[in-house]
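Handout, section B. The chain below has 481 residues.
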Amino acid sequence: MSSWFRKSLASVAERTKGLSEKVSQASHVARESVSRATTQRLLGSVGTTQELEALLEQTARSLKSVGTATETFRRWTAQIQDVSQRYEDGNHRLTFKQCFLRCRAIDLAVETLAGIPGSTLFTNPGEDPAPNEALKALLQCCTTQPALAEASIGLLLDGAALANDGALRNFKQWVLTSLNLLKLDWEDDLLLEERKEMGCHAEDLRSELALFVIDGDEAQKAAKLKQRAVLSRNLVDLYSSTRSNIDSSLEHRENLLSEQEKSLDHVLESTTQAIDEMNNEAAAHTEKRTGLNAELSAASEHIRQSLSKMDQDRKQIDDEISGWETRKQQLRLELEEVSQKLAAAREKQRQHMAAVDELRGQLETTTSGFGGQLKMETSTLTVLEQQRELAEQVKNHTSSLRVESCRALSESLASLSSRRQVFEGIFVDILTSHAKYQDERMEAAEAQVEDASKRIELAEARRVNLAAMGVADEAEADNGE
């Protein structure tokens, strides 16, 4: 019976597990369908880059929770990876990724989440990893240093509640500046995309030229030579455009590096000033707390001395009451007089106790007042210390960011310069080939001209011969007559 019961429980548990998995899968599919439908509905009415960027920034400002942000980040990541959709922007057609990099969507999203109490995108082990994964996937698509960008966002979310005013009033701007510098540059991405397209086209032209064959009769050879020259001219123009693109990219990256260094230097200077300001304020509060402790000690000592004197008076009064009690027992005849003195002594005792209670109340009030002020100053010092530590973290983080990002951009500039030198060598080879093709075409044309001249001379000689023969025939006819 017990065995049957255990088997039944195991069967029910297995069915429950299977149903839970199916429900989870169905829920995931439904969320994905809703997300795709939402994306299509939102982007269906967007045609220009300005409209798309406004929509992205509005979405970032309207985030209500970490769950909403997670779904939004997943949707943005999928759209960044889709390069088929294009948006009009003057003479260019930008991708979603380039529009996303140009607007402030990621900045506003993080800033909005920082304003929600208790919100965090970084979960602890054992919790739902979806927010971490969604954010990391997005940062992989749109930043040069995803780990530093993630650290910047974590720093902003952790320190947002502490850095509302005072020396850390610019804390949010510091971190957002760092995050912006880590974003990929949309103009550089556009230049790279154009360079890739021209590179593919150039490879096609080079392959076509390499396989080009000059054969056939003279007319066909001339036509093919002309066609090859046109292809070579197109290849030269394409490589010239590519070189202009590389030059533009180099100039843009140099300007970007200069602006990045200026921004990071400004953040480092601001954080240093904030730390100095907080150190000065902490020193002032420490001095004030020391003064309050001295005043409290002096006031407490004065009240303790007063209480000591009152205790001595109390002993004298108690001795007096005891003497009068004895006197009352001994002198029953003087009971009325002694009773009046006893009543007077008790009244004096009551007044004395009231005075003692009043002084004790003053001591308690004074101690309570100083205690509140001391507690307030201690709390202020604690907050200042936390803010100073947070500013130190921002300073250290910005220093690391300055070294890493500048190093990465410098390496990128060196790599692009090296590739440009290689490109110049290839470009010279192509120009040499083009000149060779042009020489061959000119030689063929000269051969055709020479051949045509010979033909003309032959035709002229033949015409002269025929003309001479015609004159001889006429002379013979005249003689016969």
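Note. The first helix runs from residue 2 to 43. Compare this with the example in section A.
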